[in-house]
Structure formats: structure tokens, C-alpha cells
Amino acid sequence: MSRTLHFALHPYGVGGPGQHGLWKHPRVPKNASIDINYYIRQAQAAEHALFDALFIVDSQFINATYPAHYLNRLEPLTLLSAVATHTRHVGLVGTASSTYNSPFNLARRFASLDHISGGRAGWNVVTSFDTGASRNFGLEEHLDYTTRYRRALEFVQVARGLWDSYEDDAFPADVERNLFLDPSKLHRLGHEGEHFKVAGPLNLSRSPQGQPVIFQAGVSEEGRDLAAQVAEGIYAPGGSLEQAQEYYADIKRRTAAYGRDPEHIKIFVHGGPVVAATDEAARRREREIFEEDNDFDRNLALLGRSFGAYDFSAHDLDAPFPDVAHLAEKGGRTGAAKIIARATARKLTLRQVAESVGEFRRSPFVGAPETVADTIERWFSAGTFDGINLAFRTDDDLDLFVDGVVPILQKRGLYRTEYPADTLRGNLGLPVPVNRWASTEAQV
Fold first, then answer.
1. In angstroms, rounded to a whole number, what is the distance separating the alpha carbons of residues 203 and 165?
2. What are 360-407's pLDDT values in tens digits?
3. Which of 276, 431, 300, 299 is nearest to 365 (CA)?
4. What residue ranges do the domains of the chain occupy?
5. 6-279+363-443 is classed in which CATH architecture?
């Protein structure tokens, strides 16, 4: 098989959605989410296992019902800049909102991370579905869904323009000619669009990988279209094998329709493998993990996130699911629509909907090492993903996967035995973007 698996590591810290009780685990440091040494160890473990990237999620709104990790965590770009100095190969992907940032500042920060890491930075572009974030940025209302995605597209276009401010040979630093910068190689952006007016240029040159890698998590029609236009890596919803196949084929098809090479977009599904000595032991542990984290009040609060952190506790739990469709337009519209459709079709009460949000769902990547490797190979061969964004509860769980599953995949020729490159683009098999100002001769 010519295709090669890609893995990213998504650290939980003290526990995110679906892992609310993780902070109580004796092997999890109670300050993990704000301890830079925790992230350095995670990144080094990922690098030892030849993973493509460390992936850091983020949001800019909380209330007291949010998971422990969300309540007290480090800002992604600050975190990743520190991690960069303790790693050499693993990519460093940080989440940042296109709704609550300005293009110049964010482009500069990601370009700085790209230089600090030697070309290993990636930006996970999100539009923010937490409606309460608006009040942290002086706005009365969260932008509607369509506007957020139009803004995101323009934001990425502006950032990419700024990253091309200097041509690659702009700094001759020629002492004899007294020429540090060749001014003909510096270019003002002069962007004026629907959402942004940015003069440029950026005061930072391109890194060894040209530009940071753009990631996105498109689920809705607007999200899938944005991903097909600008993303080079995607964090996909997963689901069943058939659902993952449909999503994979749809994104690759949309990418081609926009004139892009479908091979230049890598799709990662979420995976939380549970590995044990036997299949039975792994399935038993999977069920134990669910029971450790299953809590009705938390599930009710989690339900509210799709509706702008709405507090459902004010409603009668045994009455029909309330009419809150109007809250979804400025929140997590796709997820909210699915919840409403299921509640309506089955005539569910609020209690039943909250219970269904937290119901036990088996992961496909659970079992003895050989079983997990077999499942990964089957899904990969079936065209469901290019890689998996892996999440493990503890370091021990990560070790079980790396020591048990990875060697099997390597023996089958599905996974690398060394890094092929020094940059995130190189390891993902993505091309270096051609500077838009480079001459035709220089591009050949």
C-alpha cells in the first residue's frame, strides 16, 4: 500500500468533554492542564512514536459546568512555543478562532511559532460556537453561522497573503553591498474585503515549510465547503465506518471541485483507543471508563453547549424537549439540528435527550493490540481517513498503544519507521506553497 497512516496526539489534560471525571484518576496530575512539563512529555512521547502532530484544542468561553480541562488551561500558541524548544520533529497544531482574532496579529503569532519550531506549526481554524464568547470581546451578540464562515474564509486568505509578505530570497544580508533587505522582495498586501482591511506587510519572513499548515473541522455544509477550499488537514467527526467513508469521499470530491489536489488534504478522525492484553479485557475497561464519567447533570450541561451554553436545568426534565431551535443558529448548528431532529422524531423528553447524549457508544478501536491494528487497517483501506487524532486518558494508555499497536502497523508497512522530513508539511506529504510574488522562473 502506497498510502501511509498519520497520527496526531490530542492530550486531555485533566479531562475534556466525555472525560469529566478524569481529574480524579490517580495517574493524572491535578494541574496537568496548566503544567507545561505535562505537555512537553506528551509531545516527546508523540515524537518518540513518530506521530505527525500534537494537537491543542481551545475555546474562549466557560461557565462552571464546563469540563475540568476547559476551566483552567494554557493558551495554545504560548504552550506550543514552549513545547517547540523541547522537540525536533513533531508538528505543533493550535486552535484559534477566526471570529475572535484579527488576521495580522494571529498571522504573526503562527508565523512566529513556525520559525521557533523550524517549520512545524499548524493552525486549526475554528469559528467558535460558544455564543458567550462574544461578551468577552465587547460584542453584544455572537455572529450568525453564515457570517462566521464567510469571515473565516476571508481571514485565512488574508493570513496567507501576509505570510507571503517576503519572497524567500528577500534578505541577502550582504555586508559588502550594505544591503540587508532587497526592498523589491517585500510586498504590501493591501487587502480590502467584506470583513477586513489589512495593509501589511507582515514583519516576518516565511519558514522552512513556507506557511503554517491549515487545519479545520468542517461538519456542516458551510464547514465542509470551507475545509475543501482552504484546509490541508481536517479533524473529521468519525462515526460508523459507513459515515466516515461518506465524509471522506465528500471532502475529497469537494476539494477536487475547487481545483485542488485531493491528496493535499489529510483527513483525521477522532480515536480514543483502549488497548489491553485481550479483547475481553479491553472491552471491560472501555465500559468501566464510561461508568466513571457518566453523570446526568454533566450530560445535561454538555447538551447546552450546542445551544450557546443554554441552561436546560430550568426546564421540566420530563416534559417534551423544549423549542430551542432559535438558539442553534449562533451556536453549534449542525449538532443542535441533529439533537432536535432526534427529539422530535422520537417524541423524547428533555431527560431522555440528555441521557442519549451521554449513552454508551462503543469505539471501533478497542481490543488487544492485534485487534486494534486490524481495525485501523480495515478502516484505512476502506477510505475512511488518512490518519487518526488519538486521545488517551493516561500516559499508560498511550504507552500500550505505542508499544503494542504501532509496531504491528509498522511491520505491515502501514506506518513509518522514521520521520521523512523536518517539517509538518513534509511529514504529511504536503507541498510547500509557492510564494505568490515569486517570479515564474523561480517557480519552475
1. 8
2. 888 999 999 999 999 999 999 999 999 999 999 999 999 999 999 999
3. 276
4. 6-279+363-443, 295-357
5. Alpha-Beta Barrel (3.20)
